[in-house]
Structure formats: structure tokens, C-alpha cells
Amino acid sequence: MPAYLNNGSSNPPQLAVYLNTDNLADPPEGLNWPEYPGLSGIHKLQADGFEGLQITHEDPAPHSPLPYCGLDRINKPEEADAILHLHQSRGDQCISVHAGWGMESDREIDLLVEAVLTASAKRQFPVFLETHRSTITQDMWRTVEITKRFPEIRFNADFSHYYCGQEMPYGTIREKFDFMQPIFDRVGFMHGRIASPGHIQAPINETLDGPPDFSTCPFNYVEHFREMWIRSMRGFKTHAGPGDVLIFAPELLSPTFDYARCDKHGNEECDRYAQALLYMKWARICYDQA
């Protein structure tokens, strides 16, 4: 199976920053956001530095100047091949998937993972299982166990689900980072979202032009994510080959999804698109440091 997305070149492994298009859903009034969907919006995304799109619910824009990938959910083994065929046929470079609902036995997990890996190998189409609540990868222990049975598996790392859902700072976080190393070693895609121990989506408190300011971040959660990102990027660089690409896609969701925090008037606490630009900056810094 293809372990990573590959661009067919002989270049060293590289980072590409895409934007998950749900980041642009439900735009607040008065902000200078790309008018997406539409080619004018895609051209603004390109001008702002994004190198591709992870398309969520809409169809790809004809003649898009940016490449795109997809995402989906695979609940049963018999669904895997058809879902991969659908995304490969529409021109997706790869997909990330939510697999199962988190209530499966080990045997059911194995059948589901086997079906996804088999379909990926058959179609030579990269697939990344997302570390996500309410899926077979919903907790660190279960996901590490999957790596023991399927060492070839690759993940879409969305560590907000572990950091908040499993309250990672509660206890010794360094031990948890070391425990998660088999996951870090198998990251081929990343969803950019930073969580706090009690909120699935928390802001980065800095400006694009200034130095990072972590003084208002309880539990130093931004630094914790920085380390998890660097460990994942180092794992990718260690195992990837010529032409392999690691996609980092900010995915900051609106209050509609119960992610973005709001004040008592229903206003979001920060500009999600501006935050995505910060994520782009810090992803590239972390990749250089990995």
C-alpha cells in the first residue's frame, strides 16, 4: 500500500499546508475571508499561502488552481473499496477517514483496518485513519495496540481529541508522549487544531508579525501541541522517501459543530481564518525544527 502521498518527484520529503474547507463554514460578518466555494476564493487561499484544499462536503471546483484531497467515514469493512473508488475517481490525491464508532471489538477493528489497507493497496491510493473521538482510534491505548497488529498503518493526526478527550495534562504528559511514539511514527497527514484540557478548540494567542505569546495558555497547551507536531513531523521525515508529502490542514470548526467557543452574545472568540494562517506559519516552523 502507498504509505504516504507522493508527488512523483525525487525531492526530499516535504510539508504541504492545505486548508480543510470546513474551516470556512459559517463565516462571521465583517471579516475578510475568502469567498469559498468559488474560484475567486480559491485564488485568495493560494495567494495567502495555502498549497491545497481538503474538501469536506462540497464538490471540487472545476479548473481549481489548487490540488485537493478528501475525507470520509468507513463504518463497515464492505464499504472501504467503494469509498476509496469514489474519491480516487473525482481526483482526490488521498483521503483521511473516520473508521468505525469506537464500540468495536478487537476482531471487528482488525476486519475494518484490513479492509481499508487492502483497498488502499488495490487502488494505490493513500488513506489515513484519523485519531478522532467516536472511532476505532478514539483513545491512545487502543490506537497504539492497532499499530502493533498493523505496523504499516498511517494516521491523520488530530491530537485535539486525545488532548481534550483524554485530558492529557492530567498526570505525567511526558510519559504519554513517549507512549504515543508509535502513533507519531506513523503520521502521514495532520489536522491542525489545538485544544486545551477542557475545550476541543482553543486559540493561539499571538499575531502573525510578533513573537509567540504563551503567557495566557493554561497548562502550556500550545507548547504541548508544538511538541506533538514536531514528533509527528520527525516520524514522517524518518520514514518517508523521495517525493513523499505530509499534508498539514488547519481544521478550525464553527459553533455549528460545537467547536468554536463563543461569548454570551454568540460571537466567536477569535477569527478562525486568521488562526488558520497562524497554524500555517507554526506548522512550517515545526517542520523545520523536526
Describe this structure in words.
This protein has 290 residues and is an alpha/beta fold. It has a single domain, classed as Divalent-metal-dependent TIM barrel enzymes (TIM Barrel). The chain is 35% helix and 15% strand. The chain is built from 9 helices and 9 strands. The chain has an 8-stranded parallel beta barrel, surrounded by 4 helices. α2 packs parallel to α3 and α8 crosses α9. The protein is globular. The two termini are 26 Å apart.
Q: Give the overall shape, derived from the CA principal axes.
A: globular
**CATH class (first level) name:** Alpha Beta
CATH architecture: Alpha-Beta Barrel
Q: What is the residue-averaged pLDDT?
A: 93
N-to-C CA distance: 26 Å
Determine the CATH superfamily: Divalent-metal-dependent TIM barrel enzymes
Secondary-structure element order, as H and E? Answer: EEHEEHEHEHEHHHEHEH
The computed structural class is alpha/beta
- How many individual β-strands? 9
- Strand order of the biggest β-sheet: 2-3-4-5-6-7-8-9
Briefly note the CATH topology name. TIM Barrel
Largest sheet at a glance? 8 strands, parallel, barrel
Which residues sit in consecutive blocks of at least 5 with pLDDT less than 50?
A: none
Helix-residue proportion? 25-40%
How many distinct folded domains?
A: 1
Rg, rounded, reads 18 Å
